[in-house]
Amino acid sequence: xxxxxxxxxxxxxxxxxxxxxxxxxxxxxxxxxxxxxxxxxxxxxxxxxxxxxxxxxxxxxxxxxxxxxxxxxxxxxxxxxxxxxxxxxxxxxxxxxxxxxxxxxxxxxxxxxxxxxxxxxxxxxxxxxxxxxxxxxxxxxxxxxxxxxxxxxxxxxxxxxxxxxxxxxxxxxxxxxxxxxxxxxxxxxxxxxxxxxxxxxxxxxxxxxxxxxxxxxxxxxxxxxxxxxxxxxxxxxxxxxxxxxxxxxxxxxxxxxxxxxxxxxxxx
Length: 268
Hints:
The protein has helices at 3-29, 46-62, 92-97, 170-183, 196-205, 218-230, 253-266, and strands spanning 33-36, 43-45, 67-70, 74-76, 82-90, 103-110, 119-127, 132-137, 141-144, 147-148, 161-164, 189-191, 210-213, 234-236, 248-251. It is an alpha+beta fold. Helix 4 (170-183) links the parallel strand 11 and strand 12 (189-191). An eight-stranded mixed sheet has the order 4-3-5-6-7-8-9-10, sandwiched between helices.
């Protein structure tokens, strides 16, 4: 890990922990839905906006020349060539219902703020409900707290536990449901937990063998993808593409190729 990446990671971790504490406090006080975005089930809470405002303010204090790209407040270019990619509460529906599987996700990338071209430098994903802190920097490995993470060894597809998720669009969900129905008889089981960043960290920590999804936004996977990759997972889009809204898969290298072929055959 370069000294600069280490410093960036420390900033991401410190701010993510503070933001996670705020989110957990607001969850305990009661959650208010203040808006809906892409569909009636795609909700925004007051805590989403407050948490992102906190993150943005802290980054402005510490890294005023960097860009910012957040789920709730959009993008703002900087002059340093670095951009912070932020999901203040990933898994908002879980947060709304009090399910302890939501996260603050903060990553810093170099280049244009788009997953097809950026280079991720550092990232942190915090699950406030469980007190878990996942982190990684390019070349520095991935960690859960102080424990270094390593992706589970590749297994036969029939023995693989797979994480996935669904879009907010009813039409897209129907298509995704058909893919999952075709895949389910061919794997150990499928989990749909509702928080993409934690699903990717689950692959990094060996709690799942693989993860795939379509329609993710950049802030959903910026930190989690780096954490999974630094733990030894293959993280990619379809064929030779980088992960993007079109598709992302994360798994041990041998399993990733097999699962991708099966998903393509099922029409993913």
